[in-house]
Amino acid sequence: MTVKLRQRKQNSKGRTSLYLEFYRGKTTLPDGKTKYLRDYEYLDLFLIEKPKTAIDRQQNKQNLELANTIRAQRELDIKNNKFGFHTDRKDTNFISYFYHIAQKKEGGTKAMWLNAIRQLIYFAYEELSLGRELTMFSGEIIRLDMGELEVKHIKMLDEIHTNLTFDMIDERFCENYREHLLTKVINPRTKENLSTTTANIYFTYFHCCFKQAIKERIIQFDPCINTQSISVIEGVRNYLTLGEIRALANTDCKNKVLKRAFLFACLVGLRISDVRKLKWSDIKQDEKQWSISFNQKKTKKLQYLPIPEQAKKYLGETESPDTLVFYPLSAYALKNWAEKAGLKKHLSFHCSRHSFAVLQLEAGTSLVTLKNLLGHSRVETTMKYAKITDGMLQKAMTAIPEI
């Protein structure tokens, strides 16, 4: 392995970044192409491109000397076997490592991690021409045309891996994967590109794997370090008006549990993950006030919420403490229920939480109080709802007296 000191201009800042390039030879890809194996270490050292003073020139000299000292130290570390990839480690297969981290997640978060892995598998086949074989841990090989590679064909996603390894992922791979998420992935429901929120999540998960791998000394350099994160373009938050919620309440739903759970969430503001795990032991009952005390599934924080009088009827009959309040809960009937009620909006269970927030703001609830009701850590998160409350905006615009 050779180590060379390289420079990269940062035109917008008028300076040059110093970094090390580690050349580890080359390999032949399955399609016959040659791939040169290079790793990089950015030193957080810079040269002023056009030094104007003696101080600028002295700083450039010192930074260059320090960079060369680090380069020499890295060469010494390599000779002493203290630097580089640990190819004897079990998780050098990147997909397996990605999956290993995903397995530690729970519920909807875990599902998002698995979806992120699926998108990476699609991209890896296209980018590296790895072939169209998904190798199962069981040893079974299934061959699928790329056009047929949909979720329904991958029933055992948690058993899938490819031969994509850490050393095959470089800066170019990361840049291209970012572009892939933004321009080539189609949401099967909307038939449009992924939302920037989803693309951001997938790429963030991908990047997290490298950060964790560095901590575990699997790799020394993060190939994503210079790849710009995906900026989130705020979309429209779908919510129901009071009239629309009343329409749902007055419309029969085949899934009685779903109807109770959704309307309860509209009045209390719980996430579906918290509604699903709500037990009777979480509900405190006394003559004056019923309340919920629970740990949020998403944030793990303790949450206390009073239960409005009109929400009690949606809880159903009181049962034993360890019994789930809403079981079994599935959201599949939401679409038919909404259509039956005459609603034109696309309805998801999370829409109930948005509706709760908007109705609270329109009723005059302060942002700080709403923040606590929703269990947000920052009021900035809650402020997003203030942008979609037409009633509040109209009231504000007519608040100034006649002049």
Would you identify the regions where 5 or more consecutive residues have pLDDT less than 50?
Answer: 82-88, 131-161
CATH class of the largest domain: Mainly Alpha
Fold-level CATH name of the largest domain: hpI Integrase, Chain A
Major pleated sheet: 3 strands, antiparallel
Number of domains: 3
Supply the number of helical segments. Answer: 13
What would you call the structural class? alpha+beta
Tell me, rounded to a whole number, the average pLDDT: 80
What portion of the residues fall into strands of 2 or more residues? 5-15%
In the CATH classification, which architecture of the largest domain applies? Answer: Orthogonal Bundle
Number of beta-strand segments: 9
Rg estimate, integer Å: 27 Å
CATH homologous superfamily grouping of the largest domain: Intergrase catalytic core
Specify the helix fraction band: 25-40%
Termini separation (Å)?
Answer: 78 Å
Query: Order of strands side by side in the largest beta sheet?
Result: 1-2-3
Structural commentary:
With 403 residues, the protein is an alpha+beta fold. The chain has 3 domains: 78 residues, no CATH class; 126 residues, no CATH class; 156 residues, hpI Integrase, Chain A (Orthogonal Bundle). Helices cover 39% and strands 15% of the residues. It is built from 13 helices and 9 strands. The strands form 3 sheets. Strands 1-2-3 form a 3-stranded antiparallel β-sheet. Strands 5-4-6 form a 3-stranded antiparallel β-sheet. A 3-stranded antiparallel β-sheet has the order 7-8-9, with no helix packed on it. A hairpin with a 6-residue loop joins strand 7 and strand 8. Helix 11 packs across helix 12. The longest helix has 26 residues. The radius of gyration is 27 Å and the shape is elongated. About 9% of the residues have low confidence.
